[in-house]
Design a protein that fits this description.
Blueprint: E1 3-6, E2 12-15, E3 18-22, H1 27-37, E4 42-48, E5 51-57, E6 70-72, H2 73-80, E7 85-91, E8 97-103, E9 106-107, E10 113-115, H3 118-131, E11 136-141, H4 150-153, E12 163-164, H5 170-194, H6 204-219, E13 223-224, H7 227-237, E14 247-256, E15 260-269, H8 276-280, E16 288-290, E17 296-304, E18 308-309, H9 321-328, E19 334-337, E20 341-342, E21 364-375, E22 389-398, E23 411-423
Parallel strand pairs: 2-6, 7-11
Antiparallel strand pairs: 1-2, 3-5, 4-5, 4-12, 7-8, 8-9, 8-10, 13-18, 14-15, 14-22, 15-17, 16-17, 19-21, 20-21, 21-23, 22-23
């Protein structure tokens, strides 16, 4: 369900599009193709270098006199908040409520939607808040046609314009496919008849160079964290007070990305005399603080990633990591190792366009899930774990009623990551 509202600048704003993420290069082309498949009349893109999202809608032509430009309200909101996770809850006339959520400038799926009342919108927002603990919520009202939110009051830009979907005719697609089939058949015949004798076997040295170049290019897509880098993330936790002036720390969570670790620390208000200003006094310099709702608060900060690229063309140093984990496992409540899966590698091509077989001098790389759970003091045991691990999440939970034991503590650390291992062919 969509709703078209007249903006104070004269433009028409559309509330209520269907959004979905876009994965791959050339989002403009992919977006128009998907919009055509969904039989939409208009589409718009939102996002940044971190990711893009596609919004589509089907609008009757009679609702757009003189081919006026339409703008997506959700796209305007996403452009206004290109960083972190932001949500807007807007009350309309007759109790209707509009909800939109964006992350890193891209509108999330199942948002930009209408609800009968505020309670339904809050219920729909809850699973999104669990995915993004540092989500910031803005409450706005459109009960008065003149009281536009600050992010929507400025004149809309070209970024939010809904573009028309150009539907190609079936006959043109049929002839295009037929012509393409003829060209492919002719090219295949040319290769088989005239190039078969011209294809020489690739020289071993040349094959090695091609494989090494291909592996090094794909190594840029595989990264891992050293113990020192993970320790720099954990060290930031010691700047957080546990019970500051009527507030109590409940959980710390950090998630890694290609650029940085995104961390948040959650607090609960313990009594009515505890004020937001009290907790704000303990916020470390450069961090952010968010109070939602009155009895909860969260510190938000980032730690530079400091990742190391995995050299897929070289074997990793030998290490009996199983015995190591068995030895230090006594200090942990839970250690879990997943099944090994082969890291897919795209082989280089020879002169005829055929994939080259992998040479025995290059190792096969596998990865498996690694989960560690135990007291925070056990973290130092990973200093000697010299295996490449891409850590995805680091969590610290506080439970004062936890039993005291060598592998249990009120401060429970949980690490989730992917461990890489090389094997000779």
């Amino acid at each position: 369900m969509h709703f078209i509202h007249q903006h104070e600048s004269g433009a028409k704003m559309v509330f209520g599009l269907d959004w979905s993420p876009l994965i791959g290069g050339n989002p403009q082309r992919l977006g128009e193709q998907r919009a055509r498949v969904m039989e939409a009349t208009h589409y718009v893109l939102s996002g940044s270098s971190h990711g893009a999202a596609l919004g589509v809608v089907r609008i009757v032509d009679s609702l757009i006199p003189n081919n006026e430009n339409l703008h997506s309200a959700a796209a305007v909101f996403a452009k206004s908040f290109p960083h972190s996770a932001q949500a807007c809850l807007m009350m309309m006339k007759e109790g209707a409520c509009w909800l939109v959520v964006c992350h890193a400038g891209a509108v999330l799926s199942h948002t930009d939607r209408w609800f009968a009342d505020e309670s339904q919108a809050i219920e729909a927002l809850e699973p999104i808040r669990q995915r993004f603990p540092s989500l910031q919520l803005q409450r706005e009202s459109m009960l008065d046609a003149t009281s536009w939110p600050a992010w929507l009051s400025a004149s809309p830009s070209v970024v939010s314009v809904l573009q028309r979907v150009s539907h190609r005719h079936f006959w043109s697609l049929k002839w295009l496919c037929l012509l393409l089939g003829v060209l492919i058949a002719g090219f295949a015949a040319y290769i088989n008849l005239y190039k078969r004798d011209a294809v020489d076997e690739v020289h071993p040295d040349h094959a090695e160079n091609l494989w090494r170049q291909a592996l090094r290019e794909q190594s840029t897509q595989s990264a891992w964290h050293s113990y020192a880098q993970l320790k720099s993330v954990v060290d930031t936790w010691f700047q957080i007070p546990i019970s500051p002036m009527g507030w109590r720390l409940t959980k710390i969570q950090c998630e890694s990305s290609t650029q940085a670790w995104h961390c948040n620390a959650r607090f609960n208000r313990q009594h009515r005399f505890a004020l937001n200003s009290h907790l704000a006094q303990f916020k470390p310099l450069g961090w952010k603080i968010d109070f939602t709702p009155l009895d909860e608060a969260v510190f938000v900060w980032e730690v530079q990633s400091g990742i190391v690229r995995l050299d897929l063309d070289e074997s990793w140093m030998p290490m009996d990591w199983m015995s190591y984990l068995q030895r230090v496992g006594v200090a942990y409540e839970h250690v879990q190792i997943g099944q090994a899966s082969l890291i897919p590698i795209k082989p280089p091509m020879d002169a005829s366009g055929q994939p080259l077989p992998k040479l025995s001098i290059f190792p096969n790389w596998t990865q498996r899930t690694l989960i560690l759970k135990g007291p925070l003091r056990a973290f130092t045991s990973l200093d000697g774990f010299h295996m490449p691990v891409r850590w995805r999440r680091a969590t610290l939970s506080l439970d004062r009623q936890a039993p005291s034991a060598i592998n249990r503590s009120a401060l429970t650390l949980e690490l989730l990551g992917d461990m890489f291992e090389s094997h000779a062919q």
